[in-house]
Design brief:
This protein is mostly helical. It is built from three helices and no strands.
Length: 89
């Protein structure tokens, strides 16, 4: 495990310690790990939201029947096969 040393202002240190106490964190490291995990989760949620919006804005809706799914699988398999063939050439 790596250890970090981060210089912060007195005001920022006070804010961190206050948030630690309010959140019931036993150490600054525990609080910072929690804060980083929250930041990563927010980033993942923003990415998912962007993917969903891109999907909604991508065109007309398609009914996903078993036949449609099988067709998409065949198209995907063909694309993968073509890419592998180009890499060998």
């Amino acid at each position: 495990m790596k250890h970090l040393s981060v210089p912060v202002s007195d005001e920022f240190d006070e804010t961190i310690r206050k948030r630690m106490a309010e959140g019931g964190f036993g150490s600054m490291a525990e609080y910072l790990r929690h804060t980083v995990r929250q930041d990563l989760q927010r980033a993942d949620e923003a990415k998912l939201e962007r993917f969903l919006l891109d999907g909604f804005e991508s065109g007309e809706p398609v009914e996903m029947t078993d036949e449609w799914i099988q067709e998409r699988r065949l198209v995907l398999a063909d694309r993968i096969s073509n890419r592998r063939g180009k890499k060998r050439a």
